[in-house]
Fold:
Amino acid sequence: MHRTITALCLILSFALPGCSGSSSSSGSQSDSAATGGAEPKWTIAMSQCNLGEPWRAQMNADLKRAAAEHPEIRLVFNNAENDTLKQRSQIEEFVSAGVDLIMVCPKEAQPLTEPIAKAYRSGIPVVVIDRQVLGDDFTTFIGADNVAIGREAGRWIASHAKPDARIVELKGLMTSVPAQDRHAGFREGLGDVGEVIFEADMQWLEPQARKEMDSALARFDEIDVVFAHNDPGAHGAYLAAKAAGRAEGMLFVGIDALSHEGIAYVNQGLLDATFEYPTGGTVAIETALKILAGEEVPKNIELGTSTHAQAKYEDE
Structure:
């Protein structure tokens, strides 16, 4: 499917305000990665659920960098700003604009399933990244196995914490599938080791994690381990414990392992371990190009993981 000039201006009206002089009905923050030179052959529209998490900003950067190597595509970004209704509107606008392919990182599974399915049934390929939706009305899903990553984190904690450890679990947004999967995998990997004495939904956000950790510290005199579903959550918990003078002796474990964030925290001795959750940006662009070229792609593309722990654990 090739875009018409009208469709191009329609989508650029919410990606690049100067195109039509009108603002987007979604009111979203947006960006575009046009490759310059000749007119791109295809337009790919990307809806990111939010940019408040450093991992998502890194995903957009990885997508933009990968797209820049392919002058045949124009990649348009929209930020749903953690607003499910706004993200639904963005997907509907992508369809109205007649884009050639949609990429989406859904904020939540259930509310985004319908607009994604409608876009897919209209004939537009849809690449779902990171967070699953319900059913199978999309072209392909790209993401890591969150159950497996949560299980690895649970096993690591089980092998490094004392048998009766008192554990805090700071969960991601529990209406999102990755948070549900990380929680399930973590409890499976933890097995019979320790007791989870406090759990809270910090919605993937560091300030919320710090607030919840303050509550845990106020309620419990002894905490041995903090497991957060992402590195900002683990870092927020560490800062809360440090401010209370209680960080010494606690284990802090997170997920994501961005070089400038989770891995840096491990190297600085703030976190004990982090587990890589790859953004999949390069894989997403490569997959989109195959789809646009008419090639078949797998329904599910699983990304790998790795563990990054402080050097003191290397010989254990």
